[in-house]
Amino acid sequence: MLTNLSIPLLFAVFAIAGLAVVLASIRATALADIIADRTKMGEAMAGGLILGAATSLAGVVVSVDAALSGDASYAFSNAVGGIAAQTLFLAIADVLHKRANLEHAAAEPANLFQAVMLIILLSVPLCAIAGPDIAYFGIHPVSVILFVVYLYGVKLSTTVKENPMWRPVRTSDTRRDEPEDGDEPNKSVRGPALSFVGLVVIMGVGGWFISQAGGQFIERFSMSSSLVGSLITAVVTSLPEFVTTLVAVRRGALQLAIGGIIGGNTFDTLFLLAGDVAYRDGSLYHAIELNDVYWLGTGLLMTAILLAGLILRQREGPARIGIESVLMMAVYLAALTVEVTG
């Protein structure tokens, strides 16, 4: 559809689609907070299950569209590159949250458990890559396992939220998850929910245009699929997570901010399932490039560092941010350097 567009128009379409996705995500954040309060779901769970999945939709569309076109590297790198970028956004949000280390202030058992689930979900495709090249009906068995593990993880996350077996120590800097003043839990959730669905549709359409533009960048500028997927489309389709994180932090919904990133990253692992189903030339995991595996390892490492920060709960570190944020920035910068110079 974008094949015959001039380069200036191509960039314009890419920018407009990205802007539409970002603006829709800003409103979606406020609605997710309202839905969390009215359903008594809680910010961490709403961030992980509702907001995280919604803001990830544009990225899903990119990976599926890339896989359908036969570009496995583009589909895979968009997924894992987005996970690394979104984890970086938490470090940036930590810099902007002046009162205390963000991971300290947003202590929540559900976020800890979702971080553990994300590490497990990122390890599964790594095993597939190192394992035998097999596929049934064009789908690797690991993709099915990935989906089952995700569903089971969602169920367990709900259990952790409703019946936590431990609670974090409350300090003067710990932000409690409480309903906003004036937003009564007994109000109807239907209106906010319908508006939220409409915004999700906008983000999905925007994701398709971003995918098409990314494919043109690969073709016209002879850029590698890994570079475009991990550093261009992944970052742009991850901007909703960045915006929603900043908006949530500004609103004081710190559990929603962290839950949205970790939950969004957990949902993003399903990009690999969707990409494997859409890729018709065999197993997606055995058709990728070495740089794509590096980005998978980067996302895994950054998540482990984030989990350590959530457990350590350091109040202040270098430049008034947690040491985990400094380390996550360093790991991402190293991956960026490897991608650009590799």
Describe this structure in words.
The protein has 342 residues and is mainly alpha-helical. The protein has a single domain, classed as Up-down Bundle (A middle domain of Talin 1). The protein contains 13 helices and no strands. α4 runs parallel beside α12. The two termini are 32 Å apart.
For the structure shown, list the relevant keywords.
75% helix, A middle domain of Talin 1, mainly alpha, 13 helices, 342 residues, globular, single chain
**Class computed from helices, strands and strand pairing:** mainly alpha
Distance between the termini: 32 Å
Radius of gyration: 19 Å
**So what's the oligomer here?**
single chain
Q: How many discrete domains?
A: 1
Provide the β-strand percentage band: under 5%
Helix-strand sequence: HHHHHHHHHHHHH
- The CATH superfamily title: NCX, central ion-binding region
**Helical proportion, percent range:** over 70%
Q: Poorly predicted ranges (pLDDT <50, ≥5 residues)?
A: none
CATH T-level fold name: A middle domain of Talin 1
Largest sheet: none
Number of strands: 0
Q: What's the CATH C level?
A: Mainly Alpha
pLDDT averaged over residues: 84
Broad shape: globular
The number of helical runs is 13
* CATH architect. name: Up-down Bundle
